[in-house]
Amino acid sequence: MTVSKTAEKSAEKPAEAARGRKDAAEGPGEALQLGELSEQLGYVLKRAQLKVFENFLRCMASLQLTPAQFSVLLLVEKNPGRNQTEIASTLGILRPNFVAMLDNLESRDLCARIRSTNDRRSHILVLTDKGKAVLARAKKLVATKHEARLNELLGQSNREALLGMLSKIANEF
Amino acid sequence: MTVSKTAEKSAEKPAEAARGRKDAAEGPGEALQLGELSEQLGYVLKRAQLKVFENFLRCMASLQLTPAQFSVLLLVEKNPGRNQTEIASTLGILRPNFVAMLDNLESRDLCARIRSTNDRRSHILVLTDKGKAVLARAKKLVATKHEARLNELLGQSNREALLGMLSKIANEF
DNA sequence: GATATTTGATATGGTCCATAACAATTATCA
DNA sequence: TGATAATTGTTATGGACCATATCAAATATC
User: Fold this and answer.
1) Distance CA B133, CA B127 (A)
2) What is the Cα Rg of chain A in Å?
3) How distant is C1' of D21 from CA of A92, in Å?
4) Interface of A with B in 116-145 (CB under 8 A)
5) Using a CB-CB distance cutoff of 8 angstroms, which residues of chain A are in contact with residue B42?
6) Is B97 in contact with B130 (CB distance < 8 Å)?
7) Predicted confidence pLDDT, tens digits, chain B (173 residues)
8) Among A48, A143, A159, A168, which is most exposed with the fewest C-beta within 10 angstroms?
9) Is ipTM over 0.85?
């Protein structure tokens, strides 16, 4: 069995795992030198992203929503009446991979596919009432538990600066 | 056939893909609203990370090094004589998954496993001469093509601030 | 009306991540 | 000392995510 979406274990905390065994027996001085690694933006970026997702999953454990699912619900709420192709591609999800994702959300009655009358090929996406309610609760959890923790760690203005720089990288790099 | 590590196509540029088809026929106004999504740190963080890795792979195309492989070479160079468990866990790689990675690097004669004389269970890791040479070239490519581009985009001081905040998240979140 | 395109879907394969289990070796301690 | 436990590298395996090819139905194009 594997840990499902809501992973709790995460099996390897980078720095801590390296220590912890030999140290007790051989003394303190066995920690590896990260060296230039800690200056590599890609490396640190990846590490930070994993931590943030991990925390997001913990905060959302009660609602069982992954970051990707949360983003779909947000986007459908903001843009009701769009079809699968539009929603998927805006999120960078390939259409084939979006099918199973929607199957999941639809089976949990969070969103619904509706055959379009204009174009009977496409499925219009909308949130169900339950979907809207769950999303509302999810937003609150994210705001009070997740983003709040980041503000606490970085400070409000730093957090905004960080967001700005990341957006710049995401859009202009 | 799939595109190997050095992906060039990347199949879905989030925002651009959504437009591009209907637009030409139906006019401009069909872009989806990202809404609160663009304020979600996790979302933007993930997007930025993908862009950075993508650029890294392009810069390293001539050396065929992935970010993960680069990090292994860097760490082994900085900490010669450590065994697989130590190197892997410092990088957050699980030992079983590290085996194939080392098989690859070793088959390309970039690093070598040496049976330890102290503990004949463990394999000491070192860079080969070729490994050192390749790593040196890799560092130059990263500095001149990859990190330079980031400096250009963000500015030196912003880039450092970004790195600091990401480190904080990676270590203290 | 013949041909091409788009949409949602299926099948499939690759990569990465995580767990269980094993043989060889070493550590522990009764 | 010798039985038991723990560690190292490894294999096997399965899940999650990503990417491509292909399909039938519907629509667009010419």
Assistant:
1) 9
2) 20
3) 19
4) 139, 142
5) 49, 52-53, 56, 67, 146
6) no
7) 333 333 344 446 675 555 444 333 344 437 899 999 999 999 999 999 999 999 999 999 999 999 999 999 999 999 999 999 999 999 999 999 999 999 999 999 999 999 999 999 999 999 999 999 999 999 999 999 999 999 999 999 999 999 999 999 999 99
8) A143
9) yes
